[in-house]
Amino acid sequence: YGQEKKHNNIVVFDITGSMIGKPYNSNNKNIWQPSLKLLEKQLNSFPKEERITLYLFGENLIRVGSYSTNEGTKITSKIIDKVDSIKINNLTQNHTCIYKSLNSIIDRLDKKYTNTIYLFTDCKNSDGHKACGSITPQELASNWENKTQKSEYLYIFKLKDFSLPSELNGERIEVIDDALHNLNVVIEPINTVIRISKNNLKSSQQF
Q1: Of 8, 69, 116, 204, which sits with the fewest C-beta atoms within 10 Å of its C-beta?
Q2: What DSSP assignment string belongs to 38-88?
């Protein structure tokens, strides 16, 4: 069967102002620290011999870089520092362009790897903003279907409560609701069995 493909864990983290409670006179909660904690937990769960590719997004998609999981917690700290520097340097963005960002990532997936995408966001897509382009959830879902392998998955961590279009609950797409209140949600893709452990409840889903 040839060599099994290596795994690439693509982390896509929301850097819009609402993540840190902007605009400050609104009801927006600052969820930056707990979100980093959740991200840290997910990063630490990746096995050795895998790759992590980090993207940050708002209205623009920034590819930060790729790392090897062989460096363990050292690489986790490095990634967390990279993400945190956005807040420290006040570089948050204004619009949440989920569809545009995901579409762009799908278009440039490296076929040498089996890719799993982990999207962390606190807000729905900024529909109607020209920064986000004109891509629809239908187009995104069909692009996902057509351009990805059957062993590739997309996980959407909802860091606040908002609605996602039904197309984004489709084939090989898992939405983790209320992700911050399930801080011990860790997605472990093991072959084709996805284990989502919430508190003491283990649900094993066979695809």
Answers
A1: 204
A2: HHHHHHHHSPTT-EEEEEEESSSEEEEEEEEGGGTHHHHHHHHHHHHHHHH
Q: Could you tell me the two tokens for 124?
A: 């729905």
* Tokens 């452990």 -> residue: 197
- Structural tokens at position 123: 């807000």
Question: How is residue 110 annotated by DSSP?
Answer: -
| CA-wise closest residue to 50 among 107, 118, 104 | 118
Residue 118, strand partner residues: 11, 155
Interval 1-51: pLDDT, tens: 557 899 999 999 999 999 999 998 888 999 999 999 999 999 999 999 999
Distance CA 29, CA 123 (A): 12
Global pTM value = 0.88
Which tens digits make up the pLDDT trace of 178-197? Answer: 999 875 556 665 444 444 54
Q: Which is nearest to 49 in space by CA: 69, 78, 66, 67?
A: 69
d(C-alpha 183, C-alpha 199), whole Å: 9
Binning the chain into helix, strand and coil, the percentages to the nearest 5 are: 30, 30, 35
**Tokens 């993207």, residue?**
55
Residue 177: how many CB atoms within 10 A of its CB?
Answer: 12
